[in-house]
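Per-record layout

source: Pluvianellus socialis
name: Tryptophan--tRNA ligase, cytoplasmic
length: 473
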Amino acid sequence: MADSPDCDLKSLSPLQLFERVTEQGEKVRALKAGKAPKDEIDAAVRMLLSLKLSYKTTTGQDYQAGLPPKDLVLINNGTTKEEDEDFVDPWNVQTSNAKGVDYDKLIVRFGSSKIDTDLINRIERTIGQKPHRFLRRGIFFSHRDMDQILDAYENKKSFYLYTGRGPSSEAMHVGHLIPFIFTKWLQEVFDVPLVIQLTDDEKYLWKDLTTEKAYEYARENAKDIIACGFDINKTFIFSDLDYLGTSTGFYKNIVKVQKHVTFNQVKGIFGFTDSDCIGKISFPAIQAAPSFSSSFPQIFNGKENIQCLIPCAIDQDPYFRMTRDVAPRIGQPKPALLHSVFFPALQGAQTKMSASDPNSSIFLTDTPKQIKTKINKHAFSGGRDTIEEHRKYGGNCDVDVSFMYLTFFLEDDDRLEQLKQAYTSGELLTGELKKVLIETLQPLIAAHQERRKQVTDEMVKQFMTPRKLAFEF
């Protein structure tokens, strides 16, 4: 039967439409190259022309291969206007702003809540100590139901933590550490169990990887995660490719989620198309399942009422919006979330870093010399064109990547403020600011590398073995 355009094309973003046109163009070329029947080629061409028309109607631009659109949004009358909107989904982040994504707008669009001073103060009162610098500086900036987590904790009710990593390469970069640094702090101050999902199945489905290579990356990434200092008695790390086949509780929850989410819903949430493999379409249920304590009967003794708190980057929120929608319908508590900003690439905050581009970030395998070279050569500067201009007008910390990185990794608030004032006034030059970052990151990465050397294959096996943790439920 001939392909026909989906009736819900209007719900797709400009970038998603662009990808649909590109896919259909490739299909037409493949049919012609394979000398397919004429009626089949004609039907595919009609589909391509229809998609191109939808693209032009939505964006006001003709489709051009290799030139993705600027992010456009539909307004109420169906016409289009260009806006300073950011595009964020679990696989793509696009912004035209050198300062990075507008997170206040993203909170409104996603319907989450801002982590404000009142919530930070409440966390401080609850734990009896100074909040983590990621909270103090707005790096974790948004939440869902964190108040409920604090209510439960104050009433002596336990919860657990869940975070994860998609192992797309052997080496992780410093941006990958952000959720684990914060999760480790949360685990220590609240004294709760932690599960860490390694989505090697996802990377097999989305990347050009074998299942064996994806699993190998998962185990290598696990070593870097363990090197962050997690307590083996309180932490369970699992590979999807490994754990799904051994846990009936986990698989039961996957099936329950799958039953209550329609194909139209996942297309609307994630932008999947009819050309995507069914593995991609079913994967969101796999990322949802760790949100429910019954997925880990060995830890929670089969209890289904233990609430979950998920620290993650904001691009993962679509998975958990879906999860929170499904949870009441399958008799599970909604997971709570804490969202972080994106860690900027060395070249600027317009995009996330890429593990495939060695110059886009500082990797956990980099030598002190490589760290120094990368920062000096590639770190985007907020400084002026000349020393004279910089002394006169000062630098822009809002776009300077070295200052952004220090915001993540420099613990001393007073020192960070001093650097900001000195750079903004022109007293501190770009090269001097980069030197501070180099001197901050070199010992941090070296210490991580030393800890990672102590992580043996046997330790990885212990962390990844389903077992009872040091908690009673």
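summary: The chain has a mean pLDDT of 89. The chain has three domains: 14-59, 89-347+459-464, 368-454.
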